[in-house]
Sequence to fold (300 residues):
Amino acid sequence: MLPPYLTDTDLDALIARALEEDLGTGDVTTQAIVAPETQATGVFLAKEAGTLAGLEVARRVFAAVDPYVTVNWTRADGQRVEAGTVFGTVTGAAASLLMAERLALNLLQRMSGIATATRRMVDRVRPYGTRILDTRKTAPGLRLLDKWAVRLGGGTNHRIGLFDMILIKENHIAAAGGIEAALAAAQTYRITHAEPLEIEIEVRTLEELQRVLAYHEAHGGVEVVLLDNMTPRADDGSVDTTLLRHAVRLVDGQIGTEASGNVTLATVEAIAATGVDAISCGALTHSAAALDLSLTIDLR
Fold:
């Protein structure tokens, strides 16, 4: 049920930290007003259409506050809902529901917002078979949940962090002394450490791309080239894909291609139409609006 990069222990620890942040020494409002024996039922409602994500996370939030609380979902993570859809209920001590509701909703709304934005972009490029990738532009401390939300929205997770892939960017190239030196050092590292790390390198011009291709033809070892900002934006919001199309033709399937820069729901289809293998979009996680979901609690 969890993605391969998130363990039960890690998720429970994340929730424990978040609850500690919110509850501190206790929910004084609930303690002052709500009798411990009071029971309640809460109803989850989608107030706008979107893709749900974070249901399992929300369930664990309630369980962490009170293991006797019962959560029943009528939808599943990754499913779409329309505005007005009731997608679950939670039942238990009113005090427990009140203590857990804000954190549960915060995570559920954020993850569902990311999943919704991802699903819309994935649907837009579906005719081209292009993969939509996330980035490391995530909320600190919530990266694994952000990336899980992208996954639930139909996107593809890129590297989780700095440890699981060699991605050579502009500053790395400058520090290494050039494209060829950076690639050679990356290959040496991979061989020396006997780690199956994928090597990807960023280029911004056709001249840089030609150098990467020449190196790869002579030495191999490059899995993906990141074609960065090769789609300049016009005044009307559209993008000029001429340079990116030329770059994809130059690569001609020798290595994988990823495009980044000026990627929005309005531009992603034009970028995908160039034939690029994947498109990365930081906005999926750093700018996605939370999905409007509510939890209404009724005493009984």
Observations:
- Residues 94-125 form the longest helix (32 residues).
- The mean pLDDT is 97.
